[in-house]
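Below is how a single chain appears once it has passed through the pipeline. First comes the sequence as given, then the structure the pipeline wrote out for it. We keep one example in the README because the format questions we get most often are answered faster by looking than by reading.
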Amino acid sequence: MESWPLKGETIMTDWNEGYVTDLDYTYGYYGELNPVRIKLAFLNVGIKFPTIGTACELGFGQGVSANIHAAASTTTWHGNDFNPAQAGFAQELSRISGSSSKFEAESFEEFCARPDLPEYDFIALHGIWSWVSDHNRNLIVDFIRRKLKVGGVLYISYNTLPGWSAFAPIRNLLTKHSKYYGAEGHGRAANIESAIQSVDVLVASNPKYLQGNTHAINKFEHLKGEDRGYLAHEYFNKDWEPMYFSDMAEWLEPAMLSYACSANYIDHLDVANLTKQQQEHLSGITHPIYKETVRDIMTNQQFRKDYWVKGPRKLTKTERLDLVKNIRVVLTKKASAISLKATGSRGEVSFAEKLYKTVLNEIEISNSPTLGELEIALEKDGITLAQIFEVSIALSGTGALCIAQEPEMTKIAQEATDKLNDHLIEKAVLGSTVNFLASSVIGGGIGVDRFNQLFISAVRKGHNSPEQLAEFVWNLMCLQNQKLTIKNKVLQTPEENLEELTKGAKKFIDEYLQAFQNLNLC
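Resulting structure:
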């Protein structure tokens, strides 16, 4: 395999390479890995986006994101994860949906050396880069160099400096306690618990390091309430290295990539992240890498989600205008239930109520309109295409709005998403671990918790009223000998459970049902 001189290389011999394997990784879904979502971000910075026919997710975890994207689009997905149990779960979902995806139980070294892989329009890594060795990073960069097409996009997320600087000593204490005092026979979760208790005692002693370091204290307090499986993968791997954006740029240089923009749409809203003085300072910086590095210091960036492109092509004004007008959008909940606020590094900001409500109502009425169609419909209200685009960026950041595929693509994907969703909803009867469903409309996933999945099942079976939905779900719960728990109190009587389920069903109908129908979830 062709490569270049390796940077900081170390060779690992154990099969899991110091990565946690004895506690399950979370069953999360990450919308940034949805290729359809690239369009709006690229148009915001004036860069041409590619058509995504082939895609690859390196280190897919449980494979929820990759399977949803494979089922909900015509894109052919490949990917790897070294953990056989996780790869097996991903392969099961792929078989159920009938997608053409291929997910392998292989290490980076094995997968990246495969001679049978195609070139890709899109390569994605979420929650991988900061938790693997330099050896694996070199393999990944070489793979991207060889396999990402010209014009192709890389999505990569990673822990960032300076945001992690304050908490890094606490993380070091947690892992060292687990290493020095952890007993193999006790199990990973018990050792994590012991490490947290030890550091908790230290924090209570008011060490000088933490005096005035409220960020580290607050983060540790939040950490104590997190799922132990998540903590194992986030904090207790052998390899863990946050890095500056400029360092990431140096790593990706051999792959011939250029920084495009943030995949986190809230980052595109300067008002939510930067003061006017900071905006003015950044506007005077011309070097893109240095500019982003400075911006991270301004925002104390802790976790970056970025798009990079191999050979970016700037759009002309005419090209950009035509592409913007053809962007199709859809809401993820009822317009009146959508919050007109967002949280950036500066805290919470409020959107212009009249503008946003007018645009939201028109999107709801039109059901998956293009921005060009919205421009025509809202001309009477004095709302411009630029304002509609701004609203789309902001609401994409909050998750209230998604980019929609063309209707013909939706029709092709519908059979696979129906199969996958049927399976996930069936699992929800027992207590779902996957709180997402696949939408053929957006080519990706939508957050839908267990009870809303069961309400969708009730609607599919012809139930309409809140009372009918509640009774349907309660009957399923009774078969499993389950009861609701509200504020740590188990509801004992059928009447109490039905009352709470009816409240949830009413909220589902009022806020989500119409949007879920528009997304082809029910």
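The longest strand covers residues 148-159.

See the next section for the split statistics.
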